[in-house]
Fold:
Amino acid sequence: MDVDHKRDSGLFGPDSVTWQLHSDPMMWVAGIRALYLQALHPRAVRGVMQNSDFRQDAWGRLMRTANFVGTTTYGTTEAAEKAGARVRKIHAMLTATDPDTGERYRIDEPELLLWVHCAEIDSYLDVARRSGIRLTEAQADRYIGEHRESARLVGLDPEDVPADQAQLAAYFEKIRPDLAAGEDARDVEDFLRRPPTPALLVPARELVWRGVAEVAYASLPPYAHELYGRSAPSREAVNLQLRFTGTMLRRIPARVRWQLPPKHIIRAMSRLGPGSRPAPYKLGR
Structure:
């Protein structure tokens, strides 16, 4: 490994909003919200359900997604590009079939990739802000713009991806007529609320996981609640839940959280020095 590689700050770097924001433990809650939201696009969720063992290996899928986000955020440029290439290669080989029309389509259609991307970025930003992380409007716009890079990695043209809050809101307004809570979406919802768990761990699932999944679901936009067939809770009540959850999770010392595999942040700090330590409070400076 040469010196330049050791100092490589990756796609975003310590000066980015992404670098600071993605270190927050509420990103796990945001990731679950993203799954609820992504499942509302029938063609997108069908591609997942027909090409993976989601029901049997949902935990593995969640961890692979988290690893991809960690690699692209905190890994070297080379590691991020390789991760993107792997995702593009896998997606290029997969198709799905519409059971109503018999149409067979590629799951790497730009429309589907864009939906997954926007649902994820919207979830990260929404949960972070509502759980107590202070971001200016300019920083929120910058975060969305930074993720044109992550969109490029999965095969999208960055110019076709929302670059700020106004463009992201316009995208969701445009896509809403295509959304529905079909059978696949219900399967995802059911799994996220009651994931398969060994009998001995069921009490822990009920005590810990259910609360996290419920606050993630509650944080969905009103139209998502409507599609799932439930009344949307008051935004103020959900904000209180999110702030409480954020407070609890942030009490877990970072040195403990970051030691869990695959240790992306620890490796980034080792590569770039202690000054690269991420923390959302740095965004308020």
User: Anything to note?
Assistant: Residues 3-267 form one domain. The mean pLDDT is 92. The chain is about 65% helix and 0% strand.
